[in-house]
Fold:
Amino acid sequence: MGKGMKKRVFAGQTARHFVLILASLIFVMPFLWMFLSSFKPALEIIKIPPTFFPEKFTLNNYKTIFERLHFWRYFLNSIVVSLAVTTVAMFTSSLAGFVFTKFDFPGRELIFIIFLAGLMIPFAVIVLPMYLFVSKIGLQNTYLGMVLPLCVSPFGIFLVRQFMEGIPMEMIEAARIDGASNMWIYFRIMIPLSSAGIGGVGVFTFLWTWNQLWWPLMIISKQDMRTLPLAIAALTFQHAKRYDMIVTGAAIAIVPVMLVFAFAQRRLIKGVTLTGMKI
Amino acid sequence: MATGLLIKRKDLFPIAVLAPIAVWYILFMYYPMGYSIWSSLHLWVVENPAKSTFVGLKNYIDMFTTDPRFKKALLNTIIYVITKSAVVIPFGLLLASLLERLKRGQKFYIFAVFLPALCSATAIGILFTYLYQPRFGLFNEILKILGLQPQPFLSSSKQAIFCVIFTDAWQYMGLTTIIFFAGLMNLPAVFVEAARVDGAGPLRTFFQIKIPLLGHTILFLTVYTMINAFQFFDFIFVMTSTGGGTGGAAGGPGYSSYILSLLVYNEGMLRLQIDKATSVATIMLLIVMALTLLQFKLLRPKWEY
Structure:
């Protein structure tokens, strides 16, 4: 590489960094503003003009939101619901993937297409009848009522099937000749050999459920049963908005995601680009 | 056993696995979907839905001819879908191509750009209501620093819907960026190298080699984004109850920021007009089905390798 060339490459890199830093600011600034504001006392938050760094640093907002507004309870509800949905979705996706790839039975393709077609149905289409149905069977304000309608993932079934298609049929047949049962094959061959796919379904189902707003909004009216998104959305329902609580609530919902992302960035990005999975 | 009903022993396992999943599909997908279509064709009776009378397409006709909220919601939804796609696709591609040739710092920039995409729309939405706050919000502060007029943002019936779209696009941009980034990294180096040897500059290489090679990804992601934008609910719901002192209901000020998904919720849950709400939902179903079929068609060439 000549000297001029090197200079041009250097200039190009600097220009790129310059534009990207500006772009990153657009994405980072709202978060920064949120964290700084969550440490300001209520009066400083509504001060005109606003301050950037807290003049009086306080942890009171977090204390109030956890103790007086019971956010620990909503946090717990979100964890219970997300874990339950994720577990069931991982099992149903992997079992269905196993059956669709390693068994031959009449109607296999048709059933798969009917399952996959679930991706085409907007939530808006099913939400009202589902609300009428789930409240009719008495599951309003229950974990079960929140989990049941969310716990099978059409995309998860599709994705795990893709992963399991690559597992050679000979392995399954060899295991069968040795007298292995279907469940043994499922746990000892299918799951280990498609763990990347199933793990991907797990991570994304968890995040997807964790972020759910519409269904809990329909089925939960009791304060104690609120999930985190529902609880922070409820902060904006009030006529006189408490921005100190709003900004702290947002911070509480965002911090865990930020931590997970910081530790698992490579795998998460790989999962998204590999699968095109929506969150 | 009679031959017609013969269940082979080897079919028992698939049946045991698929039957519960099929029951779930019926209860939580296809029955609700059917109910939606059914009630959209009836005059729905709140006290006893079974007594509803069949009215044919009346709900649909009423919607298109007399309901100003529906017209507004439809228009806003179209604006939402087009504006969001027009922002996230080109800018995602731009960010990705800046990132592509970077020697250092890729990981940091990707973290910054993609973080919003992982957060809940609810959290992002309420955070932005604070940033949009006309008197002490961040955005008006920035406008003031730049010497521009402060804006009413969410409390203006003209601006509210665009404020929501901007927030959505801001969150969604990370997804398009990393998908384009992966696409660019996977382009066969031969073509790019050949263009360089032939003396094409970076801009020409980008527009005449890379964009055509990425054509399939761009098309697919555009349709995917449109489907997603068409039915999204969370942002509009948490961000628009601010406006105009409408109190509880979202979609404000007035009904200026109604979109179809919110119309379904407000008609169904606040006004208990299940028949009207499900007519809107059925129209959404038809449009999303068409877009999804288009998406599957676009995906097909990849499967044929």
Observations:
- Residues 243-247, 301-305 of chain B have pLDDT under 50 and may be disordered.
